[in-house]
Amino acid sequence: MAVFINIPINSVAEVAEPTSRTYRLDLDEGRIVGMVDGAEAVLQAIRKAIITPRFKCIIYNHNYGSEVKETIVAKDATSKYTESVLPELIKDCLIPDKRILEVKNFSFDFKSDEVHIGFTADTIYGELDVQEVI
Asked: Residue 32: beta bridge partners?
């Protein structure tokens, strides 16, 4: 037997969107420089997730970080192989962040011992162009 509870519509409240406010990280200098929120906070979270090695930092669970750098520096990883697996590795590392809806339009530029990665992240704040060097 089903039980129905009458809840008046005017008593239902909208859930406030959680803030993205966090510390602004200067990832190049390794220091904290104020606060950041919104799209800029998501962009920072994307960069940080990509450059953080998965399974290596004990302060994070196994869902955080990426295997991007390990794939790029593998001795037998050709540029074609790297280009074919990096989109999935990047998508995989960004799945836990619910602010990121889709990752698309990947581009790669191989220069000597580094890879310039570009892609578009569709987020709750709109589309963000992401550029990272690994």
From this structure: 25
Q: pLDDT value at position 79?
A: 86
Amino acid at 98: K
pLDDT of 107 above 90: yes
Domains in the chain (CATH in brackets) are 19-133 (3.10.450.40)
Tell me the torsion sign for CA atoms 69, 50, 117, 23.
negative
Contact by Cβ (8 Å): 27, 47 = yes
For the entire predicted model, the pTM comes to 0.81
Residue 64 DSSP SS3: coil
Within 10 angstroms of residue 77's Cβ, the number of other Cβ atoms is 14
pLDDT at 41: 96
Strand, helix or coil for residue 123: strand
